[in-house]
Amino acid sequence: MRDILETVNGWLREDRPVALATVAKTWGSAPRREGSKLGIAAPGQADSAPAMIGSVSGGCVEGAVVEEALAGLKDGRARLLKFGVADDMAWEVGLTCGGSIEV
Questions:
Q1: Inter-residue contact 103 to 21 (CB < 8 Å)
Q2: What's the pLDDT tens digit per position in 18-73?
Q3: Which of 6, 20, 78, 93 is 20 to 30 A off residue 67, Cα-Cα?
Q4: How far is the C-alpha of 103 from the C-alpha of 36, rounded, in Å?
């Protein structure tokens, strides 16, 4: 986690908008433990894509989390996202491990 926080601090020193997604709660079989983090930086002047470090799901829902993080950076509102196998969205983004997570 130290690498994640050091990278996020570097982005902040570059004046890039940054979001830090954290696994707040898990139920059942989840790909990452509570407290796992994904740092997201908005695209910089030389970048066309956001920068990322870490993981909240081992790749299962990262795309959806990044989309919501970037939207939150634009509107200034925090998000609480829930993914589970009962959700249509979870199947679309790939969380099929049998558990649920809140990010």
A1: yes
A2: 999 999 998 887 888 999 999 999 987 777 889 999 999 877 789 999 999 999 99
A3: 6
A4: 9
Tokens at 30, concatenated = 């989840």
Identity of residue 17: P
Per-residue confidence (pLDDT) for residue 31, from 0 to 100 = 80
The CA distance from 27 to 9, in Å, is 31
The strands making up 18-22's β-sheet, listed across from edge to edge, are 18-22, 37-41, 51-54
Angle at the Cα of 83 from the Cα atoms of 4 and 58, rounded to 5 degrees: 40
Record the tokens describing residue 64, joined without a space. Answer: 């959806």
Considering only CA atoms, which of 50, 51, 24 is closest in space to residue 37?
24
